[in-house]
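Our consortium's second objective concerns turning raw sequence data into structural hypotheses that experimental partners can test. To show how far this objective has progressed, the report includes one record in full. It was chosen at random from the queue rather than selected for favorable results. The single chain below, 363 residues long, was entered without modification.
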Amino acid sequence: MMDELAKLLELFEVQLNILDALNSEKKNTKDGLKGTYLYKIRDYFINYISDVISSEGYNDRVKLFFETVFNRNHIIGSAVYYVEKNKPKGANELSKERKASSVDEYFIALNRFHELVLVKEYHNPTIFKLLSYSDELKAEVIEKVEADGFELLEKESYPAIQKNEYEYILNFMENKSRISDLDRKVIILFKLLLLYGITVRKVSKIKVNHIDLKKRTLKIECKRHDYLQNVYLELPYGLYIDIEEYIKIKGLDAEDYLFDIEENESLPSSVFSFLLYKIKKAYSMEVNNNSLILKRFTAYGMAKYAISNMLDASINIPVIEMLTDRTVDFILSCRPEKIKNSADYNHYINYKMRSTSTYKEMQ
């Protein structure tokens, strides 16, 4: 069975590589189609369907399974499996919150797999009609996921933390009695998120030699158009001390990754989810246990706070996009409330225009 499923996965990877090569100039994601779709099929669909095939007694008859047995219930079941297993970045291990968009993401990937592989390898007319993704399938997936006790959150359900939460997080991390030695790495990560809003993937790529301890700067490699441009960010003194002490304690060399990971890896959410959960729980007990406020305590919420401050300081969106590796949509979702509302645009634009030298000179 696994040989047949491995063959399907290999065929899918080959087809995605071909499409990525053809569309290299138009690629609209950092990782291309392969990076977007392959893991969804490999880590979720294949895992799910191999268990189904085994439990239904088709281990040596995979072709027969896909041509005569595979049906809408398997499609829906695999989508439910993906949504429930696929925790959002920054969510703690026990969280039952999931991204609402994950349903669409999975069906898009499954449709690709169907078009590029399944339809060519197997003849199953029923599935050909079903797999062009319908709202009915999506509705059933959502119903089953919610029945299992999961909550589907829209993007806006990951709001930025506010000033009070920011100060609480900072004070919590500065309180040595509440922090263990194992938390040192996570504290540096959280401060980078709160200050610069950089993606966890990009933070993961920071090496020790990117930090100049004499000049107190951090080198960030930014892609601008088709070339790399280094940006040297001045580190606040407290963050500089945290990094310096961490490097000494860990005995890191110049070529080591700051966060002690392997080449091309990204920090998994499990590295920082425990401390985030601990801070969130303490806040709920000591300050406010309102569920809407507690939803702000995510890696997204901290990054949005940083980007909101950058926008408020009039740093333009292309610069923020280049520095943070965030999408434009994500950055726009961080705009201060006063400029999210279109009714306030006139006031906001005129307020900014009055501060320009041209306006002042024409007074």
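The partners drew two points from this record. Residues 335-363 form one domain. Strands lie at 97-99, 151-153, 211-212, 217-224, 227-234. Both points have been shared with the crystallography group to help prioritize constructs.
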